[in-house]
Amino acid sequence: MNFDDTPQEAAFRAEARAWIQANAPKQYEDELRKASLGRSGLKNANMLEVAKAWQKKKADAGWACLHWPKEYGGRGSSPIERVIWQQEEGPFGKLSGMFIIGHGMCGPTMMAFAGEEQKRQYLPPLASGEKVWCQLFSEPAGGSDVAGLRTRAEKQGDDWIINGQKIWTSGAHYSDYGILLTRTDPTVAKHKGLTMFFLDMKSPGVEVRPIKQASGHSDFNEVYFTDVKIPDSQRLGAVNDGWNVSLTTLMNERMSIGAGVATGFPELFEFCNSLMLEDGPAIEDRSVRSRLANYAVKASGLRYTSMRAISALSKGDRPGPENSIGKLVAGSMVQEVAMYALDLQGAAGALSGEDAEVAGKFQAMLLRAPGTRVEGGTDEIMRNIIAERVLGLPGDIRVDKDVPFNKIPTKGRA
Amino acid sequence: MNFDFSDDQKQMRDAARKFLTEKCPPKAVREVLDGKATYDKALWQGLADMGFLGVAIPEEFGGAGAGHLELCVIAEEMGRANAPVPFSSTVYLAAEALLLAGSDAQKQKWLPKIASGEAIGTLALFEGKGNPSPKAIKLQASGGTLSGVKKPVPDGAIADFAVVAARTGSTGRDSDISLFLVDLKAGGVEAKSLTNVDPTRGQAELTFKNAKAEPLGAAGEGWSILTQVLDRAAVLLAFEQVGGSDRALEMGRDYALDRIAFGRPIGSFQAVKHILADMYVSATLARSNCYYGAWALSTNASELPEAAAAARISATQAFQHCSKNNIQVHGGMGFTWEFDCHMYYRRANATALTLGSLSYWEDQLIDRMRKKNAA
Ligand SMILES: Cc1cc2nc3c(=O)[nH]c(=O)nc-3n(C[C@H](O)[C@H](O)[C@H](O)COP(=O)(O)OP(=O)(O)OC[C@H]3O[C@@H](n4cnc5c(N)ncnc54)[C@H](O)[C@@H]3O)c2cc1C
User: Fold this and answer.
1) A354 pocket-lining for ligand 1 (C-beta < 6 Å)
2) For the whole model, what pTM was predicted?
3) What mean pLDDT do residues B214-242 have?
4) Which one-letter DSSP state was computed for residue A5?
5) Which of A373, B172, B205, B309 has its CA 20 to 30 A from that of A43?
6) Is the ipTM of this complex over 0.90?
7) From B257, B274, B366, residue closest to A289, measured CB to CB
8) What's the average model confidence in pLDDT over A75-87?
9) DSSP assignment string, A251-268
10) A259–chain B Cβ distance below 8 A for any pair
C-alpha cells in the first residue's frame, strides 16, 4: 500500500504539470474552479470552443485520451498516469465534459468493433476533440430497459434504412457522429433483434431537437430518423448482436473511472468555511460539522474506491460491476449536498443566479442533480447491478424475456 | 501509487481467516456471550502462538516486527469473526501507547508479554459519560500514585496492566494531563465488571486508591500521546468494523438466497436486493477509507489524523448499517438469540462508542480538515 508516487510517476507528474502550466487556458482557471455541477458554462466565452481548443492542444502534444493506444490518438498511458493527469489538470479537466461520451463510450466501442481503417480514420479526430460523438441508445419506450427500443433498421442492398426516434441524447446538437442502437428483428426476443451502427449526424433524415430541461438548460435532445441511410460498413458487430455490443459500451462507461466524480463536497466545505450564520461561522456549528463529516467520508470513500479500482486495473484486472458504486453514491450525494447548502441559506436559499449566495452555485446544482441520478442508469438500476452481479442475488423476474418483441405489451394500464 | 495490500499481506489475511474460522466459530463466541467465560482463553493463546498479537511489535520486544499493514489485515479478520478476546484493548491501545511513549525498560517489561499472550493491557481514559477530553479527566496523580475512578475501561476486569490518563496540573490546558503505567495486579486497584450492550467486549470500573504508577512518556505530554494512540486505534478498530460489516453483509446475502417466501427466494425481491446493495456500498466506502488510513498509519504520514477520523466514521456507520439491516433481511429469525445476527449488531453498536462516539469523531474530522485547509 503506497499513496506516494514512484520515481517514474513523479517524473510523469512533473512533465504533465509543466506542460499544463505552460499551455492551459489560464484566463478561465478561476471561473472553471468555481464551476460546479449545473453551472459549467463560461460567462464570456463559448464553452464548446474553449473546450475544443484545449483538447486539440492536448492531442497535438500527446496528452489526449491518455489510455488509448498511440495509433488512435492516445498516449498508451497506465491507469495510474491517468489519475495523475486528472489531478494535475485540475479545473481544466472540467472542459472535457462534452467529450466524455465520445471518449468514454463511443471510442472504446469503435475500438472493439470497427475495422482497422475506420479506427484510424475516426478515432484520432475524436481523441483530439475535433469531432464530437454522441450515444443514441435511449428512446421513449426504452431507457432503463434499453432493449425495449423501437427504432428500426432495415436492410436495403448494401445499406440500412433507419426510421424512429431517440431521446435524451446528450450533445446531439453539437455532435458530428453517433453510435446508434436499432432494432433489426422485431419477431425475436427483445435482446436478440438489435444491431449497432455508427453514423454521421449530418446524414440526410437526421433531425435534432433540443429539449428544455428541468434546469432550464438544453444539453440533451430528441433525435428523429426518417429514412436515414447507413452503409453496412458502418455496422458495429454482427447483425442482431447489438445487445452484446452495447454491453461493451456500458462496461466501458464504468471504465471511465477516475479520481474525479462530482460529489459537491469540496464546494460545500468551502461554502461552510466562509458562511456566517446568526451564531457565528457555519463551520463552527455542531450540526453543520456533523453533516459535513458525513459527506466528507462519502467523498473520500469514493475517491479511494476509485483508486482501488485503478490499482486493480494496473494489475490487469478488468473494471467490474462494483464500479457502479461511484455513480450511485455521487448521484444522490450531489443532490443532498445542494439541498443542504440551500437549507443553510435559510429564506434566501430560494433565490437563484446572481441574487443567491455564491452566485447561485448550489441552486444550479440542485436543479441539475435529479438528472445525475437518472443518466447512465438510474439509482435503482445501479442497485440491481450491485445486487445481481456483485452479490450474486437472483435477477429480476423478466416477463418479456422469451416473448417476441412485437408481442410485448406497450401500455401499463391496458 | 498502489492502493492495495501486498500479496504477502493478503496471505496473512487468509491465514488469519482460516485460523479464526476454525478456532473462533460462532459457538465459541457464544460461550462468552452467554456469560460462561469472560473471554476465550484458548483463542487468545492461539492468537499469540500464531504471532498475531505481536505482529506490529518489533522483534527486539518479542514481536514479529511485521508492521501495521499486517496488523490491519488481522484486525479485519478479528472483526469478521467477532472474536471474544481483549485484542483491541491490548494490541491497539496498550501496545500502541507503549510503542509511542514507553521507555526501553517499559517496553521490555510489557511488550514481550503482550506478544506471547501472557499479559492483557488496556487504556483507562474515560470517567463516566462523555467523549475524550482533557477536561473530563479528574483522576489525580501525586507522588507516584493514582487516585480516582475510571469507567468504562475496556477489558478492565481481566487486564494485567493499564495505561492511565491522569491529571498532573491545574492550568486548564492540555498539558495538565500525563500518562501512567499501572500494574493492576500489584494492589491499590479495585476492578468491578460492568454489564454491557456487547457481552463479548468486557467493560469495567477501576477504582484507584493510591495505586503505584510509573509515568509513561514525559509529564504534561499525556494528551498529545493519547490523541496519537486514539488515532492509531481508530484505524485498527475501523478494520475490525469493516470485517464485521462484510460478515453481516455475507450473512444477509446467504439468508436471502436460501429463504423462500411467496414461492421465491427473498433475495429476488428488489426491495431486499436494494437493502443488500446499500450494505455493500457502505461497507465498500468504509473499506476504501480504511485503506487510506492503513497507509497513513503504516507510514506515520502527516495525513494520519484526518485519515483516522475518516476511517473511524465511515467504518462505524458501515458496521451499524450492515448489522442492523442484516437483522431486517433475516426477518423474525434475525431477532432471535439463536441466530448470530445480534452478535454483530451488539458489537457494531458497542464498538461505535469505545474510542469516543460517532459525533466526537465527526467533530474531530472537520477540525482536522480545517487545520489542513488553513495550512
Ligand atoms: C441528463 C441526462 C442525459 C442523458 N444522456 C443520454 C445520452 O446521451 N444517450 C442516451 O442514450 N441516453 C441518455 N440519457 C437517458 C438515460 O440513460 C435514461 O434516462 C435512463 O437510463 C432512464 O431511462 P428512462 O428515462 O426511460 O426511465 P425509466 O426507465 O422509464 O425509469 C423510470 C423509473 O423506473 C425505474 N425503473 C425502471 N426499470 C426498473 C427496474 N428494472 N427496476 C427498478 N426500477 C426500475 C427507474 O429507476 C426510474 O426510477 C440521459 C438521461 C439524462 C437524464
Assistant:
1) no
2) 0.96
3) 98
4) P
5) A373
6) yes
7) B366
8) 91
9) HHHHH---S----SHHHH
10) no
